[in-house]
């Protein structure tokens, strides 16, 4: 074979490997590159982008005050400015806040590795999810509620069913049968179970609905300071809708990029990856998205869903005879709500990828 033919063949193989690696990245497939030279080339190729993202994160929320509409008119037809236009923290202030919050102390498992089949689902979850395990008692504390014994037992039973269903998934079953706790930790490394409850404590004594409105009042640290002029979303119906529940869900902390495929197709692919029907994978509504961020943030001391993403929700509202999408952005703890006709796009002035944080929910057990 001539040298030129060998070169052409090698170049073609490199190109095919590069294309395959890009497709794996786009489809959220974790694969290990066998070719060290190719891995080195890829890392060198993206290094500039990584450095830029690190620099942006270090410099704080320069774009936290972006408008509610992607056209950039400060809220425009949606009636008022977005939360992010009121408060502009400096990088030093943001860094101080992160140090102050830190990671809250959690009860990590200790002692010898147990036989999973011989311990309760709660203990199984403690070993599998480690610091991401949020007990029902912790949910009570965060929500400011105190369930009656029979209600607590019912919600705990729902959690036990969730853990049993998760360990029966094909991806986890083999590791569970072998008592391979490390393997199970890897399977669920990106996941965190969350209990969605339709009520939170209120100053009036009686519990209030866990709506966006009441979540803003109960957890103001997650939102920018209120403006004298109402925000655009305060006049929308979804602002007072309570989170559906009570229900346990498994939330994925990694987003799925929807630049090339719409959320529906990405969610269907996500369900297939877990060997589940499409209806098991859910796109969060706006109140579910905010609720999950607050519960996880309060429990772990980390904003596990934050990042350079425009998080697409299933919530729509009508404005000027068009149905518009509601999405969220969370940077350095603060959550902002935006409305847009169509999907938001990545652009140089707003480096946010359109994406979804999926959740898995199993059907409720039939009534006895």
In the sheet with the most strands, the strands line up as 5-10-7-8-9
Structural class: alpha+beta
Spatial extent as radius of gyration: 22 Å
> How far from one another are the termini?
74 Å
Overall pLDDT confidence: 81
Approximate helicity band? 25-40%
Overall 3D form: globular
Total number of helices: 11
Can you summarize the main beta sheet? 5 strands, mixed
Number of strands: 11
Low-confidence stretches: 60-106
Quote the beta fraction.
5-15%
Order of helices and strands: HHHHHHHHEEEHEEHEHEEEEE
Element layout with pairings:
Elements: H1 3-26, H2 36-59, H3 91-101, H4 121-129, H5 136-143, H6 149-167, H7 170-177, H8 181-187, E1 191-196, E2 199-200, E3 208-209, H9 212-218, E4 247-252, E5 256-257, H10 263-273, E6 281-282, H11 286-300, E7 309-319, E8 322-331, E9 334-340, E10 353-356, E11 359-360
Parallel strand pairs: 7-10
Antiparallel strand pairs: 1-4, 2-3, 4-11, 5-10, 6-11, 7-8, 8-9
Helix pairs in contact: 4-6, 7-8
Could you give a quick summary of the protein structure above?
The protein is α+β, with helices and mostly antiparallel strands. It is built from eleven helices and eleven strands. The chain has helices spanning 3-26, 36-59, 91-101, 121-129, 136-143, 149-167, 170-177, 181-187, 212-218, 263-273, 286-300; strands at 191-196, 199-200, 208-209, 247-252, 256-257, 281-282, 309-319, 322-331, 334-340, 353-356, 359-360.
């Amino acid at each position: 074979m001539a040298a030129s033919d060998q070169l052409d063949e090698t170049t073609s193989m490199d190109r095919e490997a590069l294309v395959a690696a890009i497709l794996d990245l786009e489809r959220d497939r974790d694969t290990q590159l066998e070719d060290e030279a190719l891995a080195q080339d890829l890392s060198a190729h993206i290094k500039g982008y990584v450095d830029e993202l690190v620099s942006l994160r270090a410099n704080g929320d320069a774009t936290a005050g972006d408008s509610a509409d992607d056209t950039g008119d400060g809220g425009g037809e949606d009636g008022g400015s977005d939360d992010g236009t009121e408060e502009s923290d400096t990088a030093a202030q943001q860094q101080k806040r992160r140090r102050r919050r830190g990671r809250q102390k959690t009860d990590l498992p200790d002692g010898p590795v147990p036989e999973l089949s011989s311990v309760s689902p709660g203990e199984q979850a403690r070993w599998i999810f480690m610091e991401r395990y949020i007990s029902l008692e912790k949910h009570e504390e965060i929500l400011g509620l105190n369930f009656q014994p029979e209600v607590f037992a019912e919600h705990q039973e729902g959690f036990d069913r969730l853990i049993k269903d998760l360990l029966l998934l094909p991806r986890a079953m083999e590791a569970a049968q072998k008592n391979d706790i490390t393997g199970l930790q890897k399977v669920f490394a990106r996941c965190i179970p969350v209990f969605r409850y339709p009520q939170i404590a209120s100053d009036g004594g009686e519990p209030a609905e866990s709506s966006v409105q009441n979540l803003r009042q109960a957890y103001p640290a997650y939102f920018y300071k209120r403006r004298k002029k109402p925000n655009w979303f305060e006049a929308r119906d979804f602002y007072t809708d309570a989170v559906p529940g009570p229900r346990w869900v498994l939330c994925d902390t990694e987003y799925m990029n929807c630049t090339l495929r719409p959320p529906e197709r990405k969610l269907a692919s996500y369900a297939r990856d877990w060997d589940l029907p499409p209806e098991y994978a859910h796109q969060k509504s706006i109140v579910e998205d905010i609720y999950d961020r607050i519960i996880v943030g309060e429990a772990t001391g980390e904003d596990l869903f934050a990042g350079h993403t425009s998080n697409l929700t299933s919530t729509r509202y009508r404005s000027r005879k068009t149905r518009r999408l509601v999405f969220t952005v969370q940077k350095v703890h603060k959550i902002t709500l935006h409305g847009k006709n169509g999907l938001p796009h990545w652009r140089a002035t707003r480096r946010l990828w359109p994406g979804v944080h999926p959740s898995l929910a199993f059907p409720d057990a039939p009534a006895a």
